[in-house]
Design a protein that fits this description.
- A hairpin with a 5-residue loop joins strand 1 and strand 2.
- The termini are far apart.
- The N terminus and C terminus are likely disordered.
- By secondary structure, the protein is an alpha/beta fold.
- Helices cover 27% and strands 44% of the residues.
- It has one domain.
- The protein has an eleven-stranded mixed beta sheet with strand order 1-2-5-8-4-10-12-14-16-22-18.
- It has four helices and 22 strands.
- The radius of gyration is 31 Å and the shape is globular.
């Protein structure tokens, strides 16, 4: 009798295992269904965001023979002398022409493989009489579009008054500019930087490319160069005197002018006297050479700059 009771008890335990396994299977099924529903909702959100983005750009975009989607924007503003001009977060090149005027003409061209990619970013313009801001930014998009989509290419062309203070930051492309009768600040550029001439203070930092800079004069704390991965050519106008103090150079300081004397120190340290000496040019962490030249090259720089700017303008028409 005792054995029979044990057999009955064992049999009852096995019977109770069946519903517990069924419950576990049902839980897994429900979990799989929930995951599928989440994925479907995410895909629907991406499609909805793409559709809304396309509708916003209707009438503004065009398609060329190569199959690219293209958007153009042209605006004109009046700027006061000495206005601050900022160009930042641009995924492409920036070309700047200057003249003796009070008008700022802005031309922006954006291209992408399709309207969905074009809608991922926009280039905004903000302007008052004393300031102009041209900057790129992301638009709102779904998680999957942000993760797998591609950004459009951007090209900014500006025609500005010569009397400005120019600031450029976060540009993924080259920066080419005419004469600037004011200060210049360039930071975080993935491309070459070439400026026709600058009469004010200069601050160049974090540039992955060669730099060509023409200087009309050296003011107090005139020129600061730091973290530049490329060769630097400083084209100094006749009569410009000063000193160069370079630290942490992975390269050399050279000059083709008899008015420049160079002294080499230890651990990438260089000193140079330009003419009779004066205000200083500081350079830190340069992975390349620094070349000091005189006024004939300055004139050539201006000519080359104007030719390149005109070519860029012609290409946009």
């Amino acid at each position: 009798m005792f054995l029979e009771r044990n057999k009955i008890w064992t049999h009852d335990v096995k019977d109770f295992d069946v519903p517990s396994r069924l419950l576990e299977v049902n839980m897994w099924k429900r979990l799989i269904i929930v995951i599928l529903l989440v994925l479907i909702a995410a895909i629907a959100g991406v499609v909805r965001s793409h559709s809304s983005g396309i509708s916003e750009f209707k009438g503004l975009v065009s398609h060329n023979s190569v199959g690219e989607t293209r958007e153009e924007k042209r605006e004109t503003y009046e700027l006061a002398p000495g206005a601050r001009v900022e160009v930042f977060n641009i995924n492409g090149s920036v070309n700047i022409e200057t003249s003796d005027s009070k008008t700022a003409e802005i031309y922006i061209e954006r291209t992408a493989a399709n309207p969905e990619s074009l809608s991922r970013r926009r280039v905004a313009i903000e302007c008052t009489s004393g300031s102009l801001r041209v900057y790129g930014e992301r638009t709102s998009m779904g998680f999957w579009a942000r993760l797998f989509g591609s950004n459009p290419s951007e090209r900014v062309t500006l025609k500005l008054p010569r009397q400005i203070s120019l600031v450029t930051k976060g540009v993924n492309g080259s920066i080419v500019a005419d004469e600037v009768d004011g200060s210049l600040e360039v930071r975080g550029v993935n491309g070459r930087v070439q400026v026709g001439s600058v009469s004010g203070a200069v601050d160049l930092k974090g540039i992955n490319g060669n730099v060509v800079l023409s200087l009309e004069q050296l003011n107090l704390d005139a020129v600061a160069l730091a973290g530049i991965n490329g060769n630097i050519e400083l084209r100094l106008a006749n009569g410009v005197n000063g000193y160069l103090d370079a630290k942490g150079m992975n390269g050399r300081v050279v000059s083709d002018s008899s008015e420049v004397t160079i002294e080499k120190g230890k651990q990438g340290r260089y000193w140079a006297q330009i003419g009779t000496g004066g205000n200083s040019i500081s350079a830190k962490g340069i992975n390349g050479n620094i070349k000091l030249t005189r006024s004939a090259a300055t004139a050539t720089a201006t000519t080359e700059q104007k030719v390149e700017s005109k070519a860029a303008t012609t290409a946009t028409k």
